[in-house]
Amino acid sequence: MHSEILLGTHVSIGGGLDRSFERAGRIGCTVMQVFVKNSNQWTGKSLTEGDIASYKTAEGKSSIATVVAHASYLINLCALNAATLKKSRKAFFDELQRCERLGIAALIVHPGAHVGAGEREGIERIAESVNICHEKTRGYRVMTTLESTAGQGTTLGYRFDQLRSIIDLVEEQQRVGICLDTCHLFAAGCNIAVPGGWEEMMREFEETIGLNRLVAVHVNDSKRECGSRIDRHEHIGKGMIGLEGFRALMNDPRLENVPKILETEKSDDMHEDVENMNLLRSLRGAPPVVLASNI
């Protein structure tokens, strides 16, 4: 049954975090991703007890199995500029607090860009940032979840060994997970479009990092070719990855309990998400979600 597939999309929090549940449920999501504050600003309006109560009430009424959050794109945990690094660490700490108060399972963050400092220094600074934020959030359940990247510019995290090196330098390693992004993997050079490509990537991931760390998968096709190191998401089956790569993903039993989340462009009515999710469900032989009324 499609309801058992952990599949959803990034959902707007316009009008309040609690509104996201209705939006996600309306289009048949079983999981969802949200921002916990305005993603384009360093600081956000404080969460009130009322905000948290409304969120938890909406969550209790919804059929969403898992919620993950995506950190602000402004955050660079290995920023070379001291002021930016300080703001990044403060913002990440703030978002961990918000997730913990809301009961959100994971906070997904791009590891960062070393901006010329070099790979090793960048990796060490990311781990230092994580350690500083973890020190301030002892006992939290929310997972710090590093996202695999396309490797654009000086961005780190486009190779599994880089992600492994960051984890190795984190003191509370049990609090660190990984989010794989299909577009980013492909752009970074993992050719998951060819027969056996998905399996090869997963084998390397298991050997280098471990499947136990896989918290979520971002399901995005790629506008650009394999190895381009350019991060441009495309709708499922309309990009360079094509359907066979996504068929392998959707039928991988190791991902049965891992949330799969779309991050493709959408209109306000989210019809593109419906189309993408139904296409992904069809690759599993699952029936489409039939909406009770127009979105």
Identify the notable features of this structure and list them briefly.
37% helix, TIM Barrel, 295 residues, two-stranded antiparallel ribbon, 12 strands, 9 helices, eight-stranded parallel barrel, alpha/beta
What's the topology here?
Blueprint: E1 7-10, H1 19-26, E2 31-34, H2 49-61, E3 66-70, H3 82-102, E4 106-109, E5 112-113, H4 119-135, E6 143-147, E7 155-156, H5 160-169, E8 176-181, H6 182-187, H7 197-208, E9 214-219, E10 221-222, E11 233-234, H8 242-250, E12 260-262, H9 271-282
Parallel strand pairs: 1-2, 1-12, 2-3, 3-4, 4-6, 6-8, 8-9, 9-12
Antiparallel strand pairs: 5-7, 10-11
Helix pairs in contact: 3-4, 4-5
Structural write-up:
The protein is an alpha/beta fold. The protein has one domain: Divalent-metal-dependent TIM barrel enzymes (TIM Barrel, Alpha-Beta Barrel). The protein has helices at residues 19-26, 49-61, 82-102, 119-135, 160-169, 182-187, 197-208, 242-250, 271-282, and strands at 7-10, 31-34, 66-70, 106-109, 112-113, 143-147, 155-156, 176-181, 214-219, 221-222, 233-234, 260-262. The strands form 3 sheets. Strands 1-2-3-4-6-8-9-12 form an 8-stranded parallel beta barrel. Helix 3 (82-102) crosses helix 4 (119-135) and helix 4 crosses helix 5. The longest helix is centred in the N-terminal third of the chain and has 21 residues, at 82-102. The protein starts with 6 loop residues before the first strand and ends in a 13-residue tail after the last helix. The model has no long low-confidence stretch (mean pLDDT 96).
